[in-house]
Known about the structure:
It is a single chain. By secondary structure, the chain is of the alpha/beta class. It has a domain of 275 residues: Spore Coat Polysaccharide Biosynthesis Protein SpsA, Chain A (Alpha-Beta Complex). 41% of the residues lie in helices and 14% in strands. Strands 1, 2, 3, 4, 5, 9, 11, 12 and 13 form a nine-stranded mixed sheet that branches. Helix 2 links the parallel strand 3 and strand 4. The two termini are 29 Å apart. The mean pLDDT is 92.
Amino acid sequence: MIQSNNVVIAVPTYWCWEQERAREASEITYDHPTPIDQPSTLERLLDSLVSIDCPDFQILIITATTTPALGEAAEERVRGIIGKYRNRLQIMQFASSDLAFLRERLETLGFDPALISLHGYGNVRNIQLIVSHLLGAEIIVGLDDDEVVKSDYLRKATEFIGLEYKGDLIQAIAGFYIDKNGNLSMQVGEAQDNVFLDKGIHMNAALQQLRDKPGQVVETPIVFGGNMVLHHSLFAKIPFDPNIPRGEDIDYLINARFLGYRFWLDKELPVIHMPPDDYQTSPCLTIQQDVSRFIYQRTKLAFAEGLGLEEPEGLDPYPGRFLQKDLEEHAVQALRTICSDTTHDVPSPENSVKEAVEEARKKVQQYFAFQPRWEELMSAVEGDGYLVEYVNKELNS
């Protein structure tokens, strides 16, 4: 097991306008951002982390907002929350003001400051990797702010990472989400013969396959970003894709597969996932993001094959079923079903899909140019005394 003082638990927290205007002026869509005037689930998670039975781990809270106009208010709100825990936890926040400093320093080091951002899931996760790296993490444990963990969670999370298991070196491992009643499977309705409308059914099938595999630790095609454990040898080389609108966790798994890294799942490493009922994103916006996500991901897979990279295998039934040739047909049907009564001003289903295909073709090369630049960036920041001092000062303040 890795020594706990080499572990950073990284937790993104997402914020939006007050509840009465929660969808107003949002420039980025997250699943359930917390209105700035409402209670946050973050405190519930931190309460559970207080009981962790490993000493000296560090906690990094990354504060993101649906619009930059909220950056200062959200930063202040989170500062107030984590201030209650500073005498019990080694905890720090990274927010919009810190991003400005990091971008300025990266430019000094010869990097485009636009490489990093707090705008979108992939970018937020990359901040999670960079700042944890600056804190000296050998292991990053990714959690989300709407979860609760048991006291032995960190001990279990670090049991296999960085070690050989049945002849394989484990550099990335994940665990299940369970709900407050202990259920692993998602609640789903009747099948509708559409991959997007039946997404929960395909996910449940993938989870069942994993449960049925013999052994505690098994190779997996599906991971959850809120229960993901990464070794330094992996996260210093592979970034999250800034262009992925959602599902950045499974996309990261695929990015790792391109370079020959595998993800594993520990069946005895659950987190209790309790997303708030009141702060949900509209189904129309969610399915629009899913359409863009899978079209982009399928385009990326084809492009990677042309580059001679390793082809990810064993992705069925999820996400593999969403990467087939009939994707556009299913996307149009799903958008017509879900978005027909929406109050949002959205393009026609046909135009939405056409735009997603065109955007994917434009953006697909960007990730493969970004990945080697990421390696250079991580190497540069690791040796930069100004940045290391900056983040450690925040941790110890």
